[in-house]
């Protein structure tokens, strides 16, 4: 079993979007699996930001450079354009100030890669419509009162959000990832209804 | 003990013809000399970093034994640990209490002012003598961290990694101010006698006051409240007299007395001055340019309640290393113990230091190439 096989399916898709030998910053990098993979398999120059001590420790054990920081405080320590890619994986929905985070990503990186759960997925819509309760699903497995996910978005809302924060979507990849099985499926028909997850590559407008 | 064969030219422009360095080692240097770690001590430390026999053979606790020793975060079963008393110190290395060979009397304040850079230069000669060309890591807390940073700046080719705990690239006005209070107390003690008190009464009152002020700055509001509160010592009511009443007073008095027994007032002056002068950016436009393209990998740790070496200063260093395109990991450890936390929070420091060193050693031994994840991924 290699590190690549262990990576979540959506992260493998993210990796495929990153050009070899590029400079990469991963926000909320966890134990560093993604950037370790980019470093080892793609020769990237990688850095991470993470909040949790045990995750930072695990990343350090892999020889990664990870700085403890709260994304909601921005990326003030990084110069403009310091990275080719800034990655935010399944974290947009937990930050207090998503606009600040996206703007900062576009400031320090040429490309921002964002993955997020799609709240417009038909199961989520159906759950609320039929049960009259806040949706709980495989990709959003929390009750409303204890969820870390405080900023849910749909694919359509995300497009507006990017535009409102000075970004342009270069690529939008709607996915059905289910319980992060080993394979993901791209969705081409009515993605805001059928994709439970999306990966977007964004750059600054102009 | 190691004598520097060529003396030492100092940053101040002055020169010490004769320099002895008191040092201790723990563990064994491996065959490829890949596992050497230099630990730099803080203001009042010495070479005895880990538990072990002192120079008389009696078992003595080490000042950082919670971190350094067999099975500890800096495991002396795996690593060869070197710790030396700093230049200007009073625990065996040449300092103001040493005999000036020119006059055969103690230097006193005729001893040249030494800087953190001078301390590090002396350590570098010591490592030459020990056959250590490249350190796996240089590690230090507080003033020891300043030395570790100076190592990374001046000898980047001689250190793989640099671990700085509760330290700073430069002191801010507040810390310099507290140092000045300590120095003023010593210089104003009638027994100070211009620094020529050796053989007579020591400036005990001044040094004790300096230590008391120092101790306040090493603690925090929270830790003092928890440790002492407003409790009275050995009495139920106020004495209405100027005697030691509160537990915190008794504690400070005890710390002052204990310190005077083991520390030299002149060394206190020299150490605090060296800390005040230290600026990692000196000689360059900025810290970032001083460390431009540094090959050294850094691990920097701070503590939430440390107001003497506050986190924002290390954060500035982290940013500078980023701009310098260096490799830096950083964490702020939650602790109520103030600056002293670096001596009191071994488990939280171990969380980061142990894997950091293990990885560095594996790379130094060529077991994994730098910049690969190693293990299963190979």
Largest interface: A-B, 29 and 30 residues
Task: Assign a percent range to the helix content of chain A.
Answer: 25-40%
Structural class of chain B: alpha/beta
Number of domains of chain A: 1
Which structural category do the helix and sheet elements of chain A fall into?
alpha/beta
Write down the CATH class of the largest domain in chain B: Alpha Beta
> Nearest-angstrom radius of gyration of chain A?
16 Å
Shape of chain A: globular
Question: In CATH, what is the homologous superfamily of chain A?
Answer: Vaccinia Virus protein VP39
Main sheet of chain A: which strands, in order across? Answer: 3-2-1-4-5-8-6-7
Mean pLDDT of chain B: 95
What would you say the CATH architecture of the largest domain in chain B is? 3-Layer(aba) Sandwich
| Discrete helix count of chain B | 11
Strand content of chain B: 15-25%
CATH superfamily of the largest domain in chain B: Alpha/Beta hydrolase fold, catalytic domain
Q: Helix fraction of chain B?
A: 25-40%
Number of domains of chain B: 2
CATH topology of the largest domain in chain B: Rossmann fold
CATH T-level topology of chain A: Rossmann fold
Please describe the biggest sheet of chain A, giving its number of strands, its sense, and whether it closes into a barrel: 8 strands, mixed
Structural key phrases:
heterodimer, A: 206 residues, alpha/beta, Rossmann fold, 33% helix, 24% strand, globular, B: Rna Polymerase Sigma Factor, Chain: A, 7-stranded mixed sheet
Write up this protein:
The complex is a heterodimer of chains A (206) and B (378). Helices cover 33% and strands 24% of the residues of chain A. Chain A has 206 residues and is α/β, with parallel strands linked by helices. Chain B folds into 2 domains: 2-171 and 280-377, Rossmann fold (3-Layer(aba) Sandwich), CATH 3.40.50.1820; 176-273, Rna Polymerase Sigma Factor, Chain: A. Chain B has a 7-stranded mixed β-sheet, with helices on both faces. In chain B, helix 1 (116-130) packs across helix 2 (143-154), helix 3 (173-187) packs antiparallel against helix 4 and helix 4 (204-218) crosses helix 6.
């Amino acid at each position: 079993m290699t590190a690549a096989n262990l990576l979540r399916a959506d992260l493998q898709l993210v990796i495929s979007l990153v050009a070899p030998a590029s400079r990469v910053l991963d926000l909320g990098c966890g134990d560093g699996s993604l950037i370790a993979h980019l470093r080892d398999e793609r020769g990237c120059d990688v850095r991470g930001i993470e909040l949790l001590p045990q995750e930072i420790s695990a990343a350090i054990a892999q020889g990664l450079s990870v700085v403890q920081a709260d994304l909601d405080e921005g990326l003030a320590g990084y110069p403009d354009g310091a990275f080719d890619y800034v990655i935010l994986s399944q974290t947009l929905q937990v930050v207090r100030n998503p606009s600040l985070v996206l703007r900062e990503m576009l400031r320090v990186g040429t490309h921002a890669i964002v993955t997020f759960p799609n709240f417009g997925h038909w199961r989520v819509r159906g759950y609320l419509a039929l049960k009259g309760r806040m949706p709980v699903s495989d990709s959003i497995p929390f009750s409303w009162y204890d969820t870390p996910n405080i900023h849910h978005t749909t694919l359509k809302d995300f497009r507006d959000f990017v535009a409102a924060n000075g970004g342009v979507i270069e690529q939008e990849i709607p996915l059905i990832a289910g319980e992060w099985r080993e394979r993901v499926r791209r969705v081409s028909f009515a993605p805001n209804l059928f994709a439970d997850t999306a990966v977007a590559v964004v750059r600054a407008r102009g | 003990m190691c004598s520097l064969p060529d003396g030492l030219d100092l940053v101040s422009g002055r020169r010490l013809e004769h320099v002895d360095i008191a040092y201790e080692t723990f563990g064994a240097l491996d065959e490829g000399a890949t596992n050497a770690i230099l630990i730099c001590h803080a203001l009042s430390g010495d070479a005895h970093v880990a538990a072990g026999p002192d120079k008389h053979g009696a078992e003595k606790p080490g000042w950082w034994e919670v971190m350094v020793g067999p099975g500890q975060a800096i495991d002396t079963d795996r690593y060869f640990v070197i710790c030396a008393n700093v230049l200007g110190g009073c625990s065996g290395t040449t300092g103001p209490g040493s005999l000036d060979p020119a006059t055969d009397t103690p230097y006193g304040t005729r001893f040249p002012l030494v800087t953190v850079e001078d301390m590090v230069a002396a350590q570098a000669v010591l490592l030459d003598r020990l056959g250590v060309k490249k350190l796996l890591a240089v590690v230090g807390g507080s003033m020891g961290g300043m030395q570790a940073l100076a190592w990374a700046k001046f000898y980047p080719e001689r250190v793989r990694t640099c671990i700085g705990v509760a330290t700073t690239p430069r002191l801010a006005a507040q810390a310099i101010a507290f140092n000045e209070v300590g120095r003023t107390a010593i210089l104003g003690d009638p027994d100070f006698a211009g620094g020529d008190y050796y053989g007579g009464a020591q400036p005990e009152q001044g040094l004790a006051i300096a230590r008391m002020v120092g101790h306040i700055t090493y603690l925090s509001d929270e830790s003092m409240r928890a440790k002492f509160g407003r409790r009275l010592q050995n009495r139920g009511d106020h004495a209405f007299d100027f005697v030691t009443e509160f537990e915190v007073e008794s504690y400070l008095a005890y710390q002052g007395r204990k310190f005077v027994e083991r520390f030299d007032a002149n060394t206190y002056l020299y150490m605090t001055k060296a800390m005040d002068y230290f600026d990692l950016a000196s000689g360059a436009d900025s810290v970032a340019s001083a460390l431009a393209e540094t090959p050294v990998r850094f691990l920097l740790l701070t503590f939430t309640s440390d107001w003497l070496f506050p986190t924002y200063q290390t954060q500035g260093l982290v940013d500078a290393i980023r701009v310098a395109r260096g490799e830096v990991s950083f964490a702020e450890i939650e602790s109520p113990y103030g600056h002293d936390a670096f001596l009191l929070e071994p488990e939280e420091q171990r969380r980061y230091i142990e894997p950091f060193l293990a990885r560095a050693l594996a790379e130094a031994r060529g077991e994994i190439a730098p910049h690969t994840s190693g293990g299963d991924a190979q």
